[in-house]
Amino acid sequence: MRRILVMGGTRFFGKRLVQRLLENGDQVTIATRGTTTDSFGNQVQRMILDRADRRSVQAVAHAGEWDIVYDNICYSPETAQYAVEAFDGRVGHYVFTSTLSVYNPSGKLHVEADFDPYGVDLHEPIVEEQLSYQKGKQLCEAVFHQKAAFPVASVRFPIVLGPDDYTKRLEFHLERVHNETPIYIPNMNAHMNYIQSSEAASFLEWAGTQLWKGPINACSDGTIQLAEVMSIVEQAVGRKAIMMSAGSDEERSPFGVPDSWLMDNSAARQAGFVFDELQNWLPPLAKELAARL
Length: 293
What we know:
The chain is of the alpha/beta class and 293 residues long. The protein folds into two domains: 180 residues, Rossmann fold; 85 residues, UDP-galactose 4-epimerase, domain 1 (Alpha-Beta Complex). The strands form five sheets. Strands 3-2-1-4-5-7-12 form a seven-stranded parallel sheet, sandwiched between helices. It is globular, with a radius of gyration of 19 Å.
């Protein structure tokens, strides 16, 4: 029986990951702030974790010897360093949830080598409070891959969608079309990747089992133009969208990128992971969420 720690496992794809691990018969501990309840009952062990507190991370790390640690809640190089120190000699494999955001929107189909965490200069002065989401995740990867004595996989996800998405990014569009409220998308011709929450959980589980080391892209097969996304939304709602080429932050779509933002998942596919087709799940998801309006 594997001993597995999931940092951030009470909602969205983290919760789905925990469920998959339990179904495998793993002994699972979830470490969170303790503010979100879960439905796992006595199937899991629980620890309170303040990810930004070095001593809190150490307490969780030293609670056992871990076969796999899944880290879904690391956003700064400082907190990555806490984990590197705390889990030294205490973990067999570490899976860090990273992001497509380590790449810039450029129209290019990004491969893993387009951002090299091993080549980042970690000696430059950093003001944590001023870090963007992108820079924070880039530096997290750099700390893990340059400093950790244990093997680390950095799983780079695009936007994750699902019926359990607490950020409600797809619902933003469905609700505004339903309410006949304008939506601002700066570039309707831009293409994007997505992954569904169940698939993201499956991939994280796989990355831990495969003992993958280094960065790895994970997205559903296929890309989609934002104009087509809006067509799917319109069909799900049964109304035409009111689109704007300029607008406020409140009106701007969570998918409103200036250029195509894409990743290549070939490395993971060649390693044996079978991704879902984007077109097979996005339209049904839109219809499922539209039925809740």
